[in-house]
């Protein structure tokens, strides 16, 4: 994605400054709001990316949309406008959130299931995450009926597949290997 490396550098600097000023949690809430707002609005994305729209108008728009943000976050707007990088604001916000979570040792997990997770299942999956990684994680549930049952857990680059579809595929492979007469199941 274009601008990701620059966004990582900005996000890292913002996090360090926010930690120094002891406002990292407040800036995190701001960045979460910025990230969600930009992701949800194609108009805002195109406005920030437009070379035709003047920087001071972009600043007015951002200040109007994000009235109740921390002063450090407003400084980020100014910095990005000065450096002609305001078009990567959404990516900077997302990178900040990732770096923030990493700095407090929180990891994000995506659990794919057929039905929405219950609290009971969430507790069991949290235990499995802790067993696999040694840390807890925030869990995002994704629904996919093609896995038939069970779950697929992805934490970072680790994937644990306990789905029925995966088990059926393994069983099919076993049958094909062990029996030459079973060519297609």
Give me the side-by-side strand order of the main sheet.
2-1-3-4
CATH topology of the largest domain: Peroxidase, domain 1
Number of strands: 4
CATH class of the largest domain: Mainly Alpha
Described by strand count, sense and barrel closure, the largest sheet is: 4 strands, mixed
> What is the average of the pLDDT values?
86
Compute the separation of the termini in Å: 42 Å
Q: Give the amount of beta strand, in percent.
A: 5-15%
- The CATH architecture of the largest domain is Orthogonal Bundle
Query: What string gives the helices and strands in order?
Result: HHHHHHEHEEEH
What form results from the Cα inertia axes?
Answer: elongated
Total tally of structural domains:
2
Output the number of helix runs: 8
Say which CATH homologous superfamily of the largest domain is assigned.
Answer: N-terminal domain of the delta subunit of the F1F0-ATP synthase
List unreliable stretches of 5+ residues.
none
The helical percent reads 55-70%
Please tell me how large the radius of gyration is.
22 Å
Helix-strand makeup class = alpha+beta
């Amino acid at each position: 994605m274009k601008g990701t490396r620059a966004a990582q550098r900005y996000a890292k600097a913002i996090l360090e400054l926010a930690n120094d000023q002891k406002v990292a949690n407040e800036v995190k809430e701001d960045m979460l709001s910025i990230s969600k707002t930009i992701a949800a609005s194609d108009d805002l994305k195109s406005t920030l990316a437009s070379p035709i729209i003047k920087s001071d108008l972009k600043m007015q728009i951002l200040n109007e949309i994000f009235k109740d943000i921390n002063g450090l976050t407003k400084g980020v707007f100014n910095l990005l406008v000065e450096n002609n990088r305001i078009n990567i604001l959404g990516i900077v916000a997302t990178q900040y959130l990732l770096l923030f979570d990493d700095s407090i040792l929180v990891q994000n997990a995506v659990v794919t299931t057929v039905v929405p997770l219950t609290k009971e299942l969430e507790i069991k999956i949290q235990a499995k995450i802790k067993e696999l990684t040694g840390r807890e994680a925030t869990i995002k549930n994704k629904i996919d009926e093609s896995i038939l049952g069970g779950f697929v857990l992805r934490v970072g680059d680790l994937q644990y597949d306990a789905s029925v579809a995966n088990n059926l595929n393994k069983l099919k492979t076993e049958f094909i290997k062990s029996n030459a007469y079973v060519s297609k199941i």
